[in-house]
Amino acid sequence: MLEVADIFRCHGAADRADQAGSLTAGPCRVMAAIAVCRTAALGGHVERCQDCGETRIASNSCRNRHCPKCQGLARAQGLADRRRDLLPVPYFHVVFTVPAPIASIALQNKAVVYDILFRAAAEAVQTIAANPKHLGAAIGMTAVLHTWGQNLFPHPHVHCIVPGGGLSPEGRWVACRPGFLLSVRVLSRLYRRLFLERMQTAFNAGMLAFFGELAGLAKPAAFAAHLRVWRSVKWVVHAKPPFGGPQQVLDYLGRYTHRIAITNHRLIAVADGEVRLRWKDYRHPQRPKLMSLPVGEFIRRFMLHVLPDGCRRIRHFGFLANMHRRAKLAVICGLLEVPEPVRAPEPVDYRERYARLFGRPLDICPACGGHLVESAVLKPAARPFRYDSS
């Protein structure tokens, strides 16, 4: 099967040479990491079956969060954590997007604007939910950042998974109305205001930079005028039908929390300097489409979605915030009269962790079912990048 790594191995060096001076260290490091993932360059170990003598070489992974092959364990661990914290209540799916001109600013200021996107969405949901005219309760939510569309063009948006209820100021559990969480119209207006206010604050603090076609926005009057236009435009907040149950929530989280810009299974071929891939036009979702991109353009679009170091793609708010999740969930479980989540000790060994998450051990011989033991360690042939597993 064709992989993103194959494209980077064959064409990455030429692409970096073509863009010398314009690519920053982060994207270059990501490209190099994906190219050598699970190859001799990173080393590994040799395993031998004690029963049949079968040997196999297991090469090390790059562990980069943008690598299509390195998300399996992180996805499984995240899914196990969320399964443990699920409540016996309806869950809602709300998506917050930004207009295309704002997405252009985000592309040049990823860390700042993506953080604003998260915080504006979370504050809008929490503020409206706390209003007695709506829910009158403090709620929780998990937000997942996606920065791409199926055609790999920039399309920053956050998917929010919201439990259908919250804690009242008096400490009671307040459930939402059946099939309805919050008014999308009210949400979109507050979200737009909070987002633009935070953008103006960031600009005033000198946190935004502008290049190329956006260079004119560096002037305060031009930036204020640009934001003024978007205060009168409708922003899209999409509330999808509530999930059918906890398993549907888990299925969604398993598919989308650790996705990257494109997965390997969408790639078809590389020929004559072009990459052919499948994509879905959501205006006609029943008709899968094919797209051909010059290799350089494919790499450029992929690199647009490399996140800055330290930028977290999954965040939790309200009673699901990491700081007090356990205490809040214990209170909520008591109010709902259900058992508290059981938290098993974290395994320190990779093999133990894998076996627990996937339900099968790593030391089983694929040929005879015997026991595999490590017989040799393969040292890395090169270290072309530093690890980035955040």
State the shape. Answer: globular
* Structural class by SSE content: alpha+beta
Helix content, binned percent: 25-40%
Order of helices and strands: HHEEHEHHEEEEHHEHEEEHEHHE
Number of domains: 2
By oligomeric state, this entry counts as single chain
Q: Major beta sheet, specifics? A: 5 strands, antiparallel
Mean pLDDT level: 87
Measured distance between first and last alpha carbons: 27 Å
Number of helices: 11
Query: Which stretches of 5+ consecutive residues score pLDDT under 50?
Result: 386-390
Tell me how many strands there are: 13
In percent terms, what proportion of residues is strand?
A: 15-25%
Spatial strand arrangement across the major sheet: 8-3-5-4-12
Query: What is the alpha-carbon Rg in Å?
Result: 23 Å
Description of the molecule:
With 390 residues, the protein is of the alpha+beta class. It has 2 domains: 4-66 and 351-378, no CATH class; 88-261 and 304-336, no CATH class. The chain has 11 helices and 13 strands. Helix 1 packs antiparallel against helix 2 (25-36) and helix 5 packs across helix 6.
